[in-house]
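Handout, section 3.2

Students often ask what a structure token actually looks like in practice. Rather than define it abstractly, here is a full record for Kinesin light chain. The first block is the sequence as you would receive it.
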Amino acid sequence: MTQRVSSMVFGDGNHGFQVGLNNAPIQASFHYPPEPLEPTPSPFASIPFRRDPTFVDRGDILNQIGRQCSKPASRVAIVGLGGVGKSQLAIEFAHRFAARSAETWVFWVHASTQARVIEGFKSIADNVKLMGRNRPDTDVLQLVFDWLSNVRNGKWLLVLDSADDFNVLLRSTSGDNDDGRKLVEYLPQSPNGSILITTRNRDLAFRLTGTFRAIHEIGPMVHEEALKLLENRLGTVSDKNAAAALVRSLDLIPLAISQAAAYIRKRAPRTSLVQYLSEFRRSESKRVRLLSQDAGDLRRDLRQDGGASNAILTTWQVSFDHIRSRRPSAADLLSLMSFFNRQGIPESLLGPPRSYSATQSISPKCTTDPHSQGSNNETRNEFEDDVAILRDYCLIMLSEDAGTFEMNGLVQLAMRRWLKAQGLQNKFLEQYITVMASSFPTGDYENWTRCRALFAHVEAAAEYRPSENNLEKIWSGLLYNGGWPMEGSREARVQVMERRKAKIGADHPDTLTSMNNLAVTYGNQGRWKEAEKLEVQVMERRKAKIGADHPDTLTSMANLASIYRKQGRWKEAEKLECK
């Protein structure tokens, strides 16, 4: 039996129909009203940021990018730490490219989130007046992909800015892309177009370009470039020496320099370059405050939904968050490294094997059998994977011998601030001090080579003052072992001694130990009068508290006798030794 079917077709002026009685399925087709024909515009550049009049060239990098982007279906990436000027290079390149190639389209897509990428593709559809782009059932991503892939539509350059997060481009999305495809699949490889990518992640850059030859890794400026940027931003620099010192203190990082210049100009004449430098050098808390100020740069995307920041410390925290979400153990490693001196961080103090003893970790603690060969290999592999992701994000560097690591000093500062916000700073400080104390030998002659390699890290430890009493003892012991050739440790020991006097009293055994440690430091520096004065106080107080025959009192007497001998005061030394 043939089934009856009622069919109706409505034009664009109809929006529905009424049925009184019907015994068959109804098929209704509705058609969108015809879109008005829009003339195809001539190619133009859609760059959301104006050209920077204070821009400083970074060597030949823009010419290199230009040569690569001139090749069909090319993909080129600018990779570097946040704040080193990747987007600024891309902006300048896009403007130069547009000025040279008036017949070429220039598009800009911000790639920090999937929503921003989709928004960027919709903007392209609007710019080129694509038919059907406004229909609710249109896949705009596919529509733009098809248009870009058609060589008859002319040449184009697409800037994919801030593509830092793997999840944005390499995982499927929803909404306009409800077929589960990844956004990276909508980036054409057609011969009429080129894509320029800016990213903090070298691994992601490789996945998007397919070759390391297309990756341009940039770091901080060279000294002359940094000075030029500071001068351009300030308008004039009267004190060249102070300017040179400031850009060095800011690790030659463009965003930090721009931030400092904006701060100085905003507060001039009450704040000068010299005053800013003095304030910056005063303390870590002062540096944090200054580097948290907004630089006021209109050429940075500041939107809340995935935009950048004009403050350098905030900028890097985005990278820290990405790493924590992708690989928490790498975030742990970076946390520990942030307390070392920025140069010559030994692999032997980091792992493998790496133990976060008694500390709260960002990642779940992995329990493995330390006697298992397979476990050791796995630990080694885990460590190398952690190092790889930190290098991919340009947060650490390898030394020439590949046996030690380096970090940017401001990155370390930002990481410690991030840890403080997470409530983890004291935990990783404890780990750092414990690792250093267990690794640093005494200052005996046979240990000089190893001591020399670790001196800078002991000096870094002197900057941190633990509040917990047991950790303070470990810290004090570390400074004692490391302080024999170090002037900087004297101030730290004075601080320890004064704090203990105020906290537990001048006669407490721990306070007397601190006084003894400081006396030893004075003696090693040849400051015999200061050493003698302290040792006499320690000896007399120990006599009164624990008696003349107690081992600690006898040690004080021996130390004082040694001081007398080194001054040629033989009779006084012999008198003490006889006791």
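Discussion prompt for tutorial groups: The chain has five domains: 1-34, 61-217, 223-291, 319-426, 440-579. How would you have guessed this from the sequence alone?
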